[in-house]
Design goal:
- The protein has one domain.
- By secondary structure, the chain is mainly alpha-helical.
- The protein contains 13 helices and no strands.
- It comes from Psychromonas arctica.
- It is a multi-pass membrane protein.
- It is found in: Membrane.
- Keywords: Membrane, Transmembrane, Transmembrane helix.
Length: 292
C-alpha cells in the first residue's frame, strides 16, 4: 500500500467516524427519516454532478432491482437504524457497533454462501460478541430499555450491511461508481414515503443544515469515491482495514466535539469488537501495508 493510499485510508476513516458525530447532532431535531432523506439526497446530487463532469450515464432502469436491493440494505435501512439510535447513544458507541458488520457478514456467508466458519473466525465471533456485551452492559445501566433498543437498532443495521456484502457476491456486475450512484437514488425513493410519519421536531437551523450537508456530501458521496479508489488501487482486503480505524475516530470526535466521556467500557468494548473483526475476516495488517 502506497503512502497516498495510507493517507486516503486514514482520511476515509476520519470521515466515516465523523458521520456518527453529525448524526448525533441532528437526529433528535430532524428525526430519522428527514435526516436520512437529506443525507442520501445530498449524496445522490453530489454523485450526479460528478457523473455529469465525467460524462458517465447512469442506466438506472437497466439495473432497477439491483439498485433497490443495494439501496435498501446498504444505505436506506441501516442509515435509518443508526439515525434512530443516534437519538439515544453517543457517537463513539455508534461507531463501535457499526464495526460489527464484518462479523455478521461472516455468519451470513456461512449460511448463504455455504462458506464454513474456521476455528479462528468462530473465536473472532465470540470475542466480537463479548465486546458488544460490554457496551450493552454499560448502556443498560445508564439508559435502560431505550438504550437497549438503540443498540439493537445498530446491530440490525450492521446485519443489513452483512446481507448487502454477501449479496454483492452474486449480484449483477455493475461498476463501483454506478453502484454507489444508483443505490443512492434508490435510497432516496425508499426513504421518501416515511417522511410524513417521522416529522421534524425542531426548527432547522444553519448548524443542522450544515451537518446534514456534511453527512451527505462528505461522509457519503465523497467517502464513496475515496473507498472505491482504495478498492481499485489496493484491493478490497486492504480497503477493509478502514473498518478498524472508524471506531477510533468515532471515539475521538465524540470526545473532542461533544465532550463524550471515554470510559473503560468504551475502550474495552471497542478493542474486543476490533479484535473479533480481525479474527473473523482474517485480515493481516502486514500484508495490507505491503506496496502492491
Amino acid at each position: 500500500m502506497s503512502l497516498a493510499s495510507v493517507l486516503r485510508l486514514v482520511l476515509l476513516a476520519a470521515i466515516w467516524g465523523g458521520s456518527f458525530l453529525f448524526m448525533r447532532l441532528t437526529a433528535n431535531s430532524l428525526g430519522p427519516a428527514v435526516l436520512i432523506e437529506g443525507r442520501v439526497f445530498a449524496a445522490a446530487l453530489f454523485l450526479l454532478l460528478i457523473s455529469l463532469y465525467l460524462g458517465r450515464t447512469l442506466l438506472f432502469t437497466s439495473h432497477l432491482k439491483h439498485f433497490f436491493i443495494i439501496g435498501a440494505f446498504n444505505t436506506a435501512l441501516p442509515f435509518l437504524m443508526f439515525a434512530y439510535a443516534a437519538q439515544t447513544l453517543n457517537a463513539s458507541t455508534l461507531a463501535i457497533l457499526n464495526s460489527t458488520a464484518p462479523l455478521f457478514g461472516a455468519v451470513i456467508a456461512s449460511l448463504w454462501q455455504k462458506e464454513p466458519l474456521k476455528l479462528k473466525a468462530g473465536l473472532g465471533l465470540l470475542v466480537g460478541m463479548l465486546g458488544v456485551s460490554v457496551l450493552v452492559g454499560q448502556h443498560a445501566m445508564t439508559l435502560g430499555e431505550e438504550g437497549l433498543l438503540a443498540i439493537l437498532a445498530c446491530l440490525l443495521a450492521a446485519f443489513m450491511y452483512g446481507v448487502s456484502a454477501n449479496y454483492t457476491k452474486v449480484a449483477p456486475v455493475v461498476a463501483p461508481f454506478e453502484n454507489a450512484h444508483g443505490s443512492l437514488w434508490a435510497a432516496v425513493i425508499i426513504v421518501l414515503p416515511l417522511l410524513p410519519f417521522m416529522p421534524i421536531r425542531d426548527p432547522i437551523t444553519l448548524p443542522i443544515s450544515m451537518s446534514v450537508l456534511a453527512l451527505g456530501i462528505v461522509c457519503t458521496g465523497f467517502a464513496y469515491l475515496l473507498y472505491f479508489r482504495l478498492v481499485k488501487d489496493d484491493g478490497p482486503a486492504s480497503a477493509l482495514s478502514v473498518t478498524f480505524l472508524v471506531p477510533l475516530f468515532g471515539i475521538v470526535w465524540g470526545h473532542l466535539f461533544l465532550e463524550e466521556a471515554i470510559g473503560l467500557n468504551t475502550l474495552l468494548g471497542a478493542s474486543l469488537v476490533i479484535i473479533g473483526t480481525i479474527l473473523v475476516t482474517g485480515f493481516s495488517f502486514k500484508k495490507a501495508l505491503k506496496k502492491r
